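Input record (one chain):
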Amino acid sequence: MRFLLLNQFYPPDVAPTGKYLHDLARVLSQRGHEVKVLCSRRSYDGTKSFLRREILEGVEIKRLPATGFGRKGFVGKVMDYVSFYVTLFNTLMFERKRPDVILSLTTPPYIGLLGKLAARRHGCRHAHWVMDLYPDVMLAHGMARKEGALIQFLRRLTRYQLRGADSILALGPNMAEKVSNYESKEGSARPVSWVPLWSDPNLTGLPAEKSNPLRDERGWNADTTVFLYSGNMGLGHRFGEFLEAAKRLNGSGPQWVFAGGGKRKSEIEAFARSNPGAAIQILDYAPQDALCAHLCAADVHLVSLDSSWAGLMVPSKLQGSFAVGRPVIYVGGRQCETAAWISESGGGWVVDEGDVDGLLGAIQQALNAGERRKRGKAAQEFAREHFQLAKSCLRIVQLLEGQAAK
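The corresponding structure, as predicted from the sequence alone:
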């Protein structure tokens, strides 16, 4: 069978959506399918250009010209989206080989509309893999008013995009329910499948007797308990509770480390400058080849999600944390996949948003080494059962193969 996969970003770019798509594409190729990806030549941050054509682990990649303003401003990001839409549309309409299945992700937003049109053009199946749910994400961002005409128009556009799809895939049960709500308004709801994202197979816990050089490099001695937030510091995440707890403890608790980037990073940097006693350390993203050591260097990982974002995205931080056997303190709404998986596994603590006293209670427990080991072991066992690349990709592949065979 021939599969055509659509997403703006793809390896070697660092955007997570592209990495997950490549994992899936590689499995499809290993099963004997012909796999082609259409993506942008420009990187997520706009600083790099990649090869126009490439074969990567059996996957044919065609990178299309587009602007590369990156994520520095809203107008530039929209220009990147629009330029990619135009070149992708032209490429899809004149694609020579008829695909059996076109799979669209959600970067840029509404790329599924082009996938839908192309599927009609070539008379093939069309599937959606929803990573972010629009326009609900815009509302959570505060970019638009719920009752506004723009949002109503975009909601109709989302329903049209989903209507008639042969497969719709979400990242968890809460997201699947929200996507299903769009479908049900059309009168004939199509079942929405969900498969959790997976952890990198290279992420494993270091042996207890093996020292971690990153701890020494960063000045963390054996008596330092490190709480780590690693990844994107975006608008959907909560940091106020963590920062307030660090301020109240005033250096008497853990070392608070925030590693990564994103729109909220400057807020954390400003807080750290204003509260020098809060034991806050800020780092850049860890390089991929040092990611395992980076995650293992911490004793407890931090994850958060504002309740207004529940079901609109499913952060993949939990998968990496659980894979290396680190317990997680989560702050945010409880009606989401992250909170449910932590509670089900026993691999951490779930704290309601705004509950700093509850967070301080969880911190007190997490400072106990025996409690950390117990919960970290439970987290790793859960990851081995539920967040395996081979298992999750196989479920998606079988779903796509089943649609193509109809």
